[in-house]
UniProtKB/TrEMBL annotation:
<comment type="subunit">
    <text>Component of the 20S core complex of the 26S proteasome. The 26S proteasome is composed of a core protease (CP), known as the 20S proteasome, capped at one or both ends by the 19S regulatory particle (RP/PA700). The 20S proteasome core is composed of 28 subunits that are arranged in four stacked rings, resulting in a barrel-shaped structure. The two end rings are each formed by seven alpha subunits, and the two central rings are each formed by seven beta subunits. The catalytic chamber with the active sites is on the inside of the barrel.</text>
</comment>
<comment type="similarity">
    <text>Belongs to the peptidase T1B family.</text>
</comment>
<keyword id="KW-0539">Nucleus</keyword>
<dbReference type="InterPro" id="IPR050115">
    <property type="entry name" value="Proteasome_alpha"/>
</dbReference>
<dbReference type="InterPro" id="IPR001353">
    <property type="entry name" value="Proteasome_sua/b"/>
</dbReference>
<keyword id="KW-0647">Proteasome</keyword>
<protein>
    <recommendedName>
        <fullName>Proteasome subunit beta</fullName>
    </recommendedName>
</protein>
<dbReference type="InterPro" id="IPR029055">
    <property type="entry name" value="Ntn_hydrolases_N"/>
</dbReference>
<dbReference type="InterPro" id="IPR016050">
    <property type="entry name" value="Proteasome_bsu_CS"/>
</dbReference>
<comment type="function">
    <text>Non-catalytic component of the proteasome.</text>
</comment>
<dbReference type="Pfam" id="PF00227">
    <property type="entry name" value="Proteasome"/>
</dbReference>
<dbReference type="InterPro" id="IPR016295">
    <property type="entry name" value="Proteasome_beta4"/>
</dbReference>
<dbReference type="InterPro" id="IPR023333">
    <property type="entry name" value="Proteasome_suB-type"/>
</dbReference>
<keyword id="KW-0963">Cytoplasm</keyword>
Amino acid sequence: MNFTVSKQPENCLLGPESDSQRTLYPYVTGTSVVALKYKDGILMAADMGGSYGSTLRYKNVERMKPIGKHSLLGASGEISDFQEILRYLDDLILYDNMWDDGNSLGPKEVHNYLTRVMYNRRNKFNPLWNSLVLGGVKKGEKYLGTVSMIGVNFEDNHVATGFGNHLARPILRQDWHENLSFEDGVKLLEKCMRVLLYRDRSAINKLQIAKITEEGVTISQPYSLKTYWEFSAFANPAQGAVGTW
């Protein structure tokens, strides 16, 4: 009796279920987050748009969340990855609370944790497609930092992600000062968000402003800014620009 043994390809054991999947491009994304220190704590602003590609698909996406007792997190980028990061942080805060030792994680510790998470995922070539802003107050010390999707991180008196890094930071550098009141801080953030609304196609005129102090986190109800669209540059944006369409 003759038996025929068919030759299988070398990779026959690697079926579709063994493929390693990666997020090659973000699907639903949020745009800029802007934050600054003021005399009593941290102020942060973000709009509520969620863009599916270039389509503004969702208009009620909250992108700022309290973390533990002392921290506030804002995110731009992929919304589902932001939800995954929130799950990581829920586990972190739960583990910290289980010690029941009277201590709790401050904003510096949470920010350091996020820098390690983002850099670790980047090294696996499977990044979380977000830029994060983490602010907080603990024992009278204000903290504000940011971390990118590849783990680049720093602290500053004011930070911004996305388009805000190019359009809002120059305004903040010019107008921010250490003794900024709450009212002046809100006006400064609104000024930044208005510029982003004019210039960023993914921005929408529905935003929230959050503050964190020693007393805790407060996130405002959504509201809209007053805008003016009759500028001559808006009427004919290509006038005087050589080589435009």
